[in-house]
Amino acid sequence: MRTASIYVLLIGVCLSELYSLGVPIKVKVAVFWEAWQKCPIPPSVLQIYFNRIFLSSADNTTRLSTWLCVLFALVRVATLQKISDNRFQMISAPGFGWILIFCSFVCSFVISLSFYFKDEIEELGPWIPQPG
Asked: Name one GO molecular function term (predicted).
């Protein structure tokens, strides 16, 4: 199964899609958890940053799965065109697929983080519970 870079790229697409599908579940659980508590505590700065990283990772994996599909098609075309040339046999190696996944992930993650960290978090003061 893992003897070609195409299969490694497909594994990357599957993992990124699974992560993308898990994000709405996490958001619904967080909303349910907050509604279930009688006196919910506001999130800490660490929790806010964790949620931002989690949501930017969700955007990242959505973008990443699209680019991995494009890379899948490009690698397949390049492999079929250069099938008899021994210099291009490394394109079909699984290691090349992992390198493509890593480079795509890093580029997409930088774009996602730059979007989510353009805002600043401002602390308003100590939290005081509502009476009642």
From this structure: G protein-coupled peptide receptor activity
Helix, coil or strand: residue 124:
coil
Q: How far apart are CA 113 and CA 86, in angstroms?
A: 40
Only one residue has tokens 């005081």, namely: 128
73-80 LR contacts (CB < 8 Å, sep 24+)? 75/5, 75/6, 75/9, 75/100, 76/6, 79/5, 79/6
Q: How far apart are CA 104 and CA 126, in angstroms?
A: 42
* Tens-place pLDDT, residues 33-44: 888 887 777 788
- The set of residues, in sequence order, having a beta carbon less than 8 Å from that of 1 and lying 6+ positions away, is 7
pLDDT in tens, 4-31: 788 888 888 999 999 888 888 988 998 8
Q: How far is it, in rounded angstroms, from Cα 21 to Cα 24?
A: 6
pTM comes to 0.72
**Which candidate, 50, 56, 51, places its Cα nearest to that of 108?**
56
